[in-house]
Amino acid sequence: MTSTPALLTASLALLMAAPAFAQSECRTISMSDVGWTDITATTSLTRQILDALGYEVEVDVLGVPVTFASLEKGDIDLFLGNWMPSQQSAIQPYLDAGTIEVLATNLQGTQYNLAVPTYLADKGLASYDDLATFADELNRTIYGIEPGNEANEYLLSLTEPGKPLEGWEIVQSSEQGMLAQVSRLYPRQEPVVFLGWAPHPMNASFDLTYLQGGQDFFGTEGHVQTVTRKGFSAECPNVAKFLSQQVFTLPMENEMMGLILDEGMAADKAVVQWLGDHPDTLDPWLDGVTTLDGAPALPVVKTALGL
Asked: How far is it, in rounded angstroms, from Cα 291 to Cα 10?
């Protein structure tokens, strides 16, 4: 015969085991946003979904090198913007050491390289080899993005003595600063060469040609990965499941960025408006995913986001 104390002990054990998933599952998620409009959009979208699931989400704006170092130290949990192959050399030491893990590829078919307005390409500037011919017109100046970015570093390496861009200046500012310069010169059809990429509304705002060359660094077609600190997937399996199923598309990101850059909308509002027009996007992302307390994720998220 089982004693009353034994029954109470067994009952308490069952009660304590019931929410074990929620208790063992991480509750606070930290993310990096490197300040590029596409990553700001996807990070905002992911953060709002995780918020709806019951997690506390912190987003820090960090450069790419600091992002990787912070992932290694465990100061942040995940990053949605590992552009490949251009960030291969930057991330590889961490992958080799096992301190950063690739969780998923979240976008396929990206493009990233030096770009010029097509009116300049029509005059003959179509490759890296042609830059020397147009050096004086371009004031030996290339507009890059934020300091420390791997693409800037690659271009700076080409300005070293004996290299193809010796004597050139790589202007390092930001995505917004670079595009402001292009926007100033483009209407007057003045020469300009700068870092361009797709997805991005710049490809609709300007008629662009991407230069041939630099494939050793930029590749011909790229992809974007979701990467995490070591052990994140094991510690946060529910979040990892969601992130492993979260796949973006070029049209999706172009449209969200268009709302931000062309319509002047805040990222949080823009991505929710986009989801409102495409609510079925969430279905495969949240398949088998739960809220922090174990409820099915999809209806909760749609209600929280007003979809």
From this structure: 27
As beta bridge partners, residue 290 has 296
For the chain, the domains span 26-110+222-304, 113-218
Q: How far apart are CA 97 and CA 230, in angstroms?
A: 10
Q: What is the pLDDT along the chain (307 residues), one digit of tens a residue?
A: 444 444 444 444 444 443 434 444 699 999 999 999 999 999 999 999 999 999 999 999 999 999 999 999 999 999 999 999 989 999 999 999 999 999 999 999 999 999 999 999 999 999 999 999 999 999 999 999 999 888 999 999 999 999 999 999 999 999 999 999 999 999 999 999 999 999 999 998 999 999 999 988 998 889 999 999 999 999 999 999 999 999 999 999 999 999 999 999 999 999 999 999 999 999 999 999 999 999 999 999 999 999 9
CATH no. of 26-110+222-304:
3.40.190.10
- The residues facing 105 across adjacent strands are 225
- Does the reported pTM lie above 0.70? yes
Tokens of 182: 């292009």
CA 218/CA 192 separation, integer angstroms: 20
Identify the CA nearest to 43 among candidates 54, 53, 30, 52. 30
The domain covering 113-218 belongs, at the CATH homologous superfamily level, to Glycine betaine-binding periplasmic protein; domain 2 (3.40.190.100)
DSSP string, 16-72: HHTTHHHHHS--EEEEEE-S-HHHHHHHHHHHHHHHHHT-EEEEEE--HHHHHHHHH
209 phi/psi in degrees, rounded to 5: -125, 130
Name the nearest CA neighbour of 113 among 212, 253, 251.
Answer: 212
